[in-house]
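Trying the structure run again after the queue cleared.
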Amino acid sequence: MPITKEQWKEIEGQLSLTWGSVDLKIDGYNINLRVEPQKARTYAVMVYIDSKFEWKWAFDGTEEAKRFCKTVSKFMFKPKERAVMVKMHGGKRCPKADLEHINRKFFFHSPVWNNVAAMRRHFEKNNQSLDVVNIGYAP
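Done. Tokens:
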């Protein structure tokens, strides 16, 4: 049975709390969503697939990572380094091939979600069946 709008509101409410918890069953996987600290005074939703997350999934591009994790892109070089490299290659007249090299990015899958609505859209887009098992901590 698909998740209703009321259930999504309840899930978003639970995941807006410090140490919130939601358990879902998605396409045969047991998904645990937990609100956990990321930095000082910063919390985010961490996705656990079958009660675990292995960081090797983030870089291997496995099926689990594509279904439940967000894709993150980062520049290979810092902004200051890119500016220096552009100046070295001729400034505004920098060849296109050099610019492509300077602005290269790498991609990985992150199990950390800062936005519950974006997580919901990703789950609905990449999975067939979403069911609620538990909202909040079980007694």
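Strands lie at 21-26, 29-39, 42-49, 70-75, 105-110, 112-113, 130-135. Worth checking whether this holds up in the mutant runs.
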